């Protein structure tokens, strides 16, 4: 970022040290709220745990160990063991490990899907809003058509057949969200198009494409990107639902949905099998939601004040 | 006059959308791998039996022809017959071979009509629960966003939105049904069976209501005309309920239109977990069983509901705020 | 005047709620029940805070520091004393933003009714509605019964202000506080509103407290004026004595700064001679916008924004274009800057029709004429460093190397007075004057011949305006520039412009040299405009004849004949039938039948 303390002009006061881009402003405003800090810390912890622990743990997330079946979590029941702080499932696998591996997939799918939706959706939305005309009509009809099909139906139709792989899951989940980004980007682009500075640029001779890519997009996209954080949570839930219905990552690879789905049979005797993944997911989602809400508030503040 | 123009335009657009949706689902089902005939005749049947049945069912014709046939039937109000469910109601289990072209299969239209009221009932009750919780919290939060009501609203909404619906369902079943025995859980044998599923759905809907209420009410309370109403002599109650809430209602109505898609997803999952015999439940079973006609029928119904709700939402927005572009 | 005052302010002070320097301190004055009391305050003096404090309507961020406001003897800030007092009924307030003062989702009439019934519950609905309709007619809102049911967005600025006056008056308050009520309005409308307020207060026997940042407006309304400076009332006198013999230096300075149009000698040099080839010619330009008609199945309304405009701009001119809102000058500006093309007619620069150029030729030609915008904050791309912004026109043409571009940018920055060190900085902390200089540099770097300034000075204060005008004069001499000033500020135009065109409803109704326009205007609209101008001077022609009523007609359904006929005090039969053609005057032309030497009073 360009920051220079300027020299005094003729008879005019010295400008203060200039701040960085809108992105940095939003981040620093968000950072000031406790909610954001808590959410961020928890999120980072979970991220690190899910990345690191599965490498360090002595257990295997997939292999059965019939001797260690149905061990309860720490301090509960009478058969708990230090080695399995969250207990084991019906096949003797360590719950903590399975939850963290499931979290890995969940986070990965969540972030990648949102990134995909953002790029595709905003790209189309910007084109649609800034250029208008035929672009606008076609893209908007497309989003309307897509929005009128509940995603869950499309998802289970496509995934209910072949063996779902991570890329297909990402693709299907991505289809569920891009129209929203397109709509938001489009209205932001339309608003931007009417702004004075665009007129000023046209007058010196800049064309639409140049204005869009060099000036308008860097202005429009950061606030949308920040709010996209909230979407990660939505996608993670969606992925878990697919897993629950048997349409997500297939067992024995652990995923929150499948673990919880299986756990229904053992609800009365081994309730921890269903609860721990739920708690992990809820905590991760809360952290993301706290961050997302703080970012949204910060964005509104920066734009309201500016 | 304006409204008539709007209605005509939107209904025309709606028909196009429903048409496109049905075409999309139709094609998708036949293009994506997964042969329904296989599932019907059983994994053991020889290939020529499969081909024979498929041809008799018309599944080997080009997609356009199949679609034409389907559309023709549709215009007569005939949504086709289920591949899976005979009129008697029992789905053929593996091993038995029920020839769908011979046996008396349940009409898709009837199936849907049978289950639609249950789903609507579930959605209705869930919405009522959601409003009952969201309104007081959301309004209080919007009026005092920096005080404890605002914090409470934020906390409630964050909590609810982070709980996966299927997990909550399991936990509630465990606690309220199995352990405490207060409410029945699975199936449907009376109104009491709606309550648990509706609670789960309501927890899913409520956070968006709360958020929109707090945010838009909060913004509107800052606007100039609300401020000015005070010096004009209007009492506070009147300002909040007669003007602020009125203005906040439009974003709320829009929200419902947008959230509809995910609401339908929620209904699906909730009905599946609770074995609640509504349209969502039927959808899951039909997709897994590759029951093409039923899936198509449901897709059309859902699309139609979608179009209808969006039109109603826009009309309500216009009734409240005539600046809205219809 | 020994009557007890209806409002007595004693030692009032207001400060931020959490503590800090007081915004108002020691304010004391008295207003009797039929007085009109004016308060002058420039922006930042605490004027609005004072107006709100008088009505017990402070925002949550401010608090009373001390003192009292006594209404009919009882202090309204003291809860025990003010049990019967009701704001909205006893004291009414009208502000400067009428457009956003009412709920946009409810029609205007019912909202005024709601207020009236809230503060005077003894009235029946019928009585209240009748009273409101009567008042709507009294404030000259046409067709009050229909307008009663219209939504706020369907009201123009002037109409809405009238509606807010009705809202304030309907409860028959004893005191009316009017805060800066004419600021957002056009000059002729503002003059009408001011006169209306004065008449109404007299007729309904109310005290009027009129706060304004224009001494000229106060001179039209108030009997006594208090001067507010940095939160204190530094002086208070009857208005004529104040103007003749101010007691404080501050007041003296304020009086000296009131713009002068006729009693000043600062005129620009005479315009360039007419026989030189014009730099830019506008020939019969037309521009119409199609706006969808709601509720009529894809039919459109035609908004006739520019209707047959023809004039020349000569090299070295400082050409002025004036007019009120809705006259089409913004559209004409866009046409001159070739941001839009006219639907009919042409615009020629150096005798080349701009419409005939290919995109490449146009890009090259654009260097010769540049546009400077009004809003210093929003007219610059938000995240670009200054040097980049200024050089953008050169960068995109790709003809010069980066070093060369940088050199030219730095040179332009020097010319406009921007410090060289600002090259890499973002404009975040710059003042409005400095920001406008960035726009000027951006235009200069392309070496233009013509600069179009679209209200470029309107958002600057007097000091910054003066500095920029100096800069423009320097640049003109050095670079041989021609300017077009689009403005609504008659005083600025008087100081600077050599030739001036007056626009009304999409046409140029008069064009003349500076001195001729101001001292010998030919068109009735020009006379009306000048008579409404906010100055303290004696106008060289009879203002009372020309102060207009009503509003300009809508640009959608323009009736045949002269567009001004509906409001012109001298209109006669022919005016409503035949559109006047421009008739040559001493230094330009005027489109008015009154000037036609062969005029005949044809029957309508």
Task: Walk me through this protein's architecture.
The complex is a heterotrimer of chains A (306), B (326) and C (604). Chain A is mostly helical. Chain A has one domain: MetI-like fold. In chain A, 68% of the residues lie in helices and 0% in strands. Chain B has a two-stranded antiparallel ribbon. Chain B starts with a helix and ends in a 6-residue tail after the last helix. Chain C has 604 residues and is α/β, with parallel strands linked by helices. Chain C has 2 domains: 5-257, P-loop containing nucleotide triphosphate hydrolases (Rossmann fold, 3-Layer(aba) Sandwich), CATH 3.40.50; 280-374 and 398-597, P-loop containing nucleotide triphosphate hydrolases (Rossmann fold, 3-Layer(aba) Sandwich). Helix content of chain C is 31%, strand content 22%. Chain C has 19 helices and 22 strands. In chain C, the strands form 4 sheets. An 8-stranded mixed β-sheet of chain C has the order 16-17-18-13-19-20-22-21, sandwiched between helices. A 6-stranded mixed β-sheet of chain C has the order 6-7-8-3-9-10, with helices on both faces. In chain C, strands 2-1-4-5 form a 4-stranded antiparallel β-sheet, with helices on one face. In chain C, a hairpin with a 2-residue loop joins strand 14 (344-349) and strand 15 (352-353). Chain C is globular, with a radius of gyration of 27 Å. Chains A and B meet through helix 4, helix 5, helix 9, helix 10 and helix 11 of A and helix 1, helix 6, helix 7, helix 10 and helix 11 of B.
Task: Summarize this structure briefly.
The complex is a heterotrimer of chains A (306), B (326) and C (604). Chain A is mainly α and 306 residues long. Chain A contains 11 helices and no strands.
């Amino acid at each position: 970022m360009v920051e220079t303390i300027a020299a005094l002009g003729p008879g005019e006061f010295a400008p203060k040290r200039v701040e960085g881009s809108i992105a940095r402003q939003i981040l620093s405003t968000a950072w000031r709220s406790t909610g954001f800090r808590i959410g961020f810390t928890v999120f980072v912890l979970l991220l690190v745990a899910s990345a690191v622990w599965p490498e360090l743990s002595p257990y295997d997330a997939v292999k059965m160990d019939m001797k260690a079946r149905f061990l309860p979590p720490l301090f509960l029941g009478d058969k708990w063991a230090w080695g399995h702080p969250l207990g084991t499932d019906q096949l003797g696998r360590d719950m903590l490990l399975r939850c963290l591996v499931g979290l890995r997939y969940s986070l990965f799918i969540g972030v990648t899907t949102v990134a995909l939706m953002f790029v595709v959706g905003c790209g189309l939305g910007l084109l649609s809003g800034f250029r208008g005309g035929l672009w606008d009509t076609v893209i908007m009809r497309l989003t309307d058509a897509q929005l009128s099909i509940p995603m869950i139906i499309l998802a289970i139709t496509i995934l209910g057949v072949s063996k779902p792989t991570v890329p297909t899951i990402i693709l299907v989940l991505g289809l569920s969200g891009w129209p929203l980004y397109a709509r938001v980007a489009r209205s932001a682009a339309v608003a931007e198009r009417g702004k004075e500075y665009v007129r000023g640029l046209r007058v010196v001779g800049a064309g639409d494409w140049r204005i869009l890519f060099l000036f308008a997009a860097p202005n429009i996209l950061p606030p949308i990107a920040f709010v996209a954080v909230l979407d990660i949570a939505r996608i993670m839930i969606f992925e878990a639902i697919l897993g629950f219905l048997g349409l997500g990552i297939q067992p024995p690879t652990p995923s929150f949905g499948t673990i919880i789905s299986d756990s229904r049979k053992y609800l009365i005797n081994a309730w921890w099998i269903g609860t721990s993944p739920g708690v992990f997911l809820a905590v991760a989602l809360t952290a993301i939601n706290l961050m997302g809400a703080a970012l949204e508030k910060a964005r509104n503040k920066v734009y309201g004040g500016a | 006059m304006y409204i008539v123009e709007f209605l005509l335009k939107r209904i025309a657009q709606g028909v196009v959308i429903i048409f496109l949706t049905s075409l999309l689902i139709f094609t998708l089902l036949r293009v994506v791998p997964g042969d329904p005939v296989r599932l019907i005749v059983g994994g053991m049947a020889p290939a020529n039996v499969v081909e024979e049945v498929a041809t008799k069912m018309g599944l080997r014709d080009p997609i356009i022809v199949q679609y034409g046939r389907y559309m023709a039937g549709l215009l007569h109000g005939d949504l086709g017959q289920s591949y899976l469910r005979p009129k008697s109601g029992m789905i053929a289990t593996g091993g038995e071979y029920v020839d769908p072209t011979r046996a008396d299969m349940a009409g898709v239209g009837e199936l849907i009509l049978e289950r639609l009221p249950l789903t609507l009932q579930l959605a209705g009750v869930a919405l009522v629960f959601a409003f009952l919780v969201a309104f007081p919290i959301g309004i209080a939060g919007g009026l005092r966003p920096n005080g404890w009501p605002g914090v409470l609203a934020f906390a409630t909404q964050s909590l609810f939105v982070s709980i996966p619906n299927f997990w909550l369902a399991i936990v509630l079943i465990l606690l309220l049904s199995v352990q405490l025995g207060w409410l029945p859980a699975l199936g449907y044998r009376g109104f009491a069976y709606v309550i648990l599923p509706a609670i789960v759905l309501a927890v899913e809907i409520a956070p968006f209501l709360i958020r929109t209420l707090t945010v838009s009410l909060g913004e509107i309370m800052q606007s100039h005309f609300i401020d000015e109403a005070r010096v004009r002599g209007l009492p506070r109650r009147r300002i909040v309920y007669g003007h602020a809430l009125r203005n906040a209602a439009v974003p709320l109505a829009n929200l419902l239109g947008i959230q509809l898609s995910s609401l339908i997803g929620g209904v699906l999952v909730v009905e599946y977990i609770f074995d609640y015999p509504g349209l969502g439940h039927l959808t899951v079973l039909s997709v897994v069983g590759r029951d093409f006609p039923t899936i198509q029928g449901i897709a059309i119904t859902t699309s139609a509901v979608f179009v209808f709700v969006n039109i109603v939402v826009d009309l309500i927005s216009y009734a409240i705020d005539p600046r809205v572009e219809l | 005047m020994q009557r007890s005052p209806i409002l007595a302010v004693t030692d009032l002070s207001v400060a931020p709620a959490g503590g800090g320097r007081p915004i108002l301190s020691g304010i004391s004055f008295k207003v009797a029940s039929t007085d009109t009391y004016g308060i002058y305050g420039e922006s930042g003096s605490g004027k609005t805070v004072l107006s709100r404090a008088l009505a017990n309507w402070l925002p949550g961020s401010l608090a009373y520091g001390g003192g009292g406001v006594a209404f009919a003897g009882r202090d309204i800030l003291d809860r025990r004393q003010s049990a019967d007092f009701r704001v909205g009924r006893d004291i009414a307030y009208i502000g400067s933003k009428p457009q956003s003062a009412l709920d946009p989702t409810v029609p205007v009439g019912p909202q005024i009714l709601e207020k009236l019934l809230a503060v005077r519950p003894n009235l029946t609905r019928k009585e209240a509605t009748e009273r409101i309709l009567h008042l709507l007619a009294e404030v000259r809102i046409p067709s009050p019964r229909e307008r009663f049911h219209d939504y706020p967005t369907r009201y123009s600025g002037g109409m809405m202000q009238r509606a807010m006056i009705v809202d304030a008056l309907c409860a028959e308050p004893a005191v009316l506080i009017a805060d800066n009520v004419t600021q957002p309005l056009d000059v002729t409308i503002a003059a009408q509103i001011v006169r209306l307020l004065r008449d109404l207060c007299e007729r309904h026997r109310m005290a009027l407290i009129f706060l304004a940042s224009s001494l000229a407006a106060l001179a039209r309304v108030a009997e006594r004026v208090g001067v507010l400076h940095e939160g204190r009332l530094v002086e208070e006198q009857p208005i004529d004595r104040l103007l003749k013999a101010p007691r404080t230096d501050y007041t003296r300075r304020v009086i000296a700064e009131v713009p002068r149009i006729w009693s000043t000698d600062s005129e620009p040099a005479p315009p360039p001679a007419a026989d030189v080839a014009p730099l830019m010619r506008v020939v019969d330009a037309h521009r119409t916008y199609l706006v969808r008609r709601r509720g009529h199945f894809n039919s459109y309304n035609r908004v006739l924004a520019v209707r047959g405009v023809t004039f020349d701009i000569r090299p070295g001119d400082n050409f002025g274009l004036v007019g009120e809102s809705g006259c089409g000058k913004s559209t004409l500006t866009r046409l001159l800057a070739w941001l839009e093309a006219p639907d009919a007619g042409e615009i020629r620069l150096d005798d080349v029709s701009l419409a005939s150029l290919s995109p490449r030729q146009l890009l090259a030609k654009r260097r010769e004429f540049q546009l400077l915008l009004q809003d210093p904050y929003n007219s610059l791309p938000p995240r670009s460093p200054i040097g980049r912004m200024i050089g953008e026109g050169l960068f995109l043409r790709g003809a010069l190397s980066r070093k060369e571009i940088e050199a030219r940018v730095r040179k332009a920055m020097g010319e406009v007075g921007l410090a060289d060190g600002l090259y890499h900085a973002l404009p975040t902390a710059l003042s409005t004057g400095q920001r406008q200089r960035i726009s000027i540099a951006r235009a200069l770097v392309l070496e233009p011949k013509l600069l179009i300034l679209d209200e470029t000075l309107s958002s600057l204060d007097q000091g910054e305006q003066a500095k920029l005008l100096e800069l423009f004069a320097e640049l003109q001499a050095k670079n041989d520039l021609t300017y077009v000033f689009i403005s609504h500020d008659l005083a600025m135009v008087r100081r600077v412009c050599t030739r001036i065109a007056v626009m009304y409803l999409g046409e140029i109704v008069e064009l003349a040299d500076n001195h001729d326009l101001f001292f010998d205007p030919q068109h009735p609209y020009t006379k009306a405009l000048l008579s409404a101008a906010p100055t303290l001077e004696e106008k060289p022609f009879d203002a009372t004849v020309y102060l207009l009523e009503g509003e300009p007609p809508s640009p959608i359904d323009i009736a045949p004949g002269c567009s001004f006929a509906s409001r012109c005090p001298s209109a006669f039969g022919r005016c409503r039938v035949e559109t006047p053609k421009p008739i040559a005057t001493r230094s330009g032309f005027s489109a008015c039948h009154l000037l036609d030497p062969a005029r005949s009073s044809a029957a309508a």
